[in-house]
Amino acid sequence: MKKRYLTFNILLLVYSQLIFAQPKNPNYDEGKIPTYTLPNVLESEGGIIVNSVDKWFNIRRPEILKLFKQNVYGEIPQQDIKISFKLQSIKNDALNGLATRKQVKIILSNHDKTLTLSVLLYTPNSCQKPVPAFLGLNFIGNQSVTNELDIPITTNWVGNYKKYHISDHKAGEQTRGCKTYRWQIEKILKNGYAIATCHYGDIDPDFDDGFQNGIHPLFYKEGQNKLQSDEWGSIGAWAWGLSRILDYLETDKDVDGSRVAVIGHSRLGKTALWAGALDQRFALVISNDSGCGGAALFRRRIGETVEMINRSFPHWFCENFKNFNNKEDKLPVDQHMLISLIAPRPVYIASAEEDRWADPKGEFLSALNADPVYRLLKTDGFAVREMPAVNYPLFSRIGYHIRSGKHDLSEYDWQQYLFFADKFMK
Ligand code: GCU
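Above: the input record for the complex with alpha-D-glucopyranuronic acid. Below: its predicted structure, written as tokens.
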């Protein structure tokens, strides 16, 4: 009898823990969005009205960048670390002669620590070099983006995916080519672009370990073993890594380093936007279904919210960002300002109709509210005021589509990105 009572109590305890551990149900009702006011992208904190290109670049842009660093993605440490490039292999007739394939190691070191990024680069053989390029991080390793059998399977941490038989954070043979549809490598090459990628786990494994692995410890000062509350999280690290790959691409004679588009899906879409904001060498930026912390406005509090993202992914942003859990109105920025940091460079924001967690409307509204900056900088900005119909892409300087279907990076998405890139990078 006693034993039964104990079991019942334990079950009750476990059950109540489970209930309390559940995230609050996300809101998907437009009618329940609290009234909010977006910070004015063209007025400085001190009340200066930003009405010239000069005031934008000298006053407001640096201010907004700083606000994002301090409150959202974290500051990037300012130390110079050693970086070197090593060509690991070159294959002149990859993909039946369509491309030249290079595998390059980027070796980063500081104090006594070293980190190596493995970059996979295809350049089209039929084009006059140097060519413009797309650069994006991948989720499961370079072997996942192509069916070629001689790309080593990453030995670094990967997320667990039942579908690809990954249960212990180690990728196996089953992951070879499992994401080819997301990369459309042949199509990209046939359109005259190079494509470069690297596994995001090379830069920082995507789990919360108090920043003991990945790139962060390379920057720890003597005696430091954790981050300050305003220092970079994982998104900041991935974005920084993209810039190091661009450092390499600038040295590759087959690639035109002044025409590199940075692209990312989902958490890596957030990363692509932040990379484009931080590093003005990126000529074009593409955000695919980036959602909360990416293109979607925080203040709408629909789908994923600040609190939810910080609870599920406590390592993505800086510690200070947690101060805004359920306090979106206190944020000195919102994501239209992230888009504006990319201006006047072309930026493409893509959503998927069924991706409600990422708040497609909030992604559209960021684009719309970044338009005044793009116009101040003498571009055509964003061509519409109302959300376009599903599958009607838009190719103004701020490009946009909402396609039918789910959260993913599809062939349809790539078709639009290629068209957009042709317009602005060729
Ligand atoms: C989760 C997360 C999103 C993120 C997505 C992804 O759904 O809540 O913010 O964009 O993962 O990266 O796949």
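Notes for the reader.
The pocket of alpha-D-glucopyranuronic acid is lined by residues 266-267, 291-292, 304, 309, 312, 357 (CB under 6 Å).
The first strand starts at residue 82 and ends at 94.
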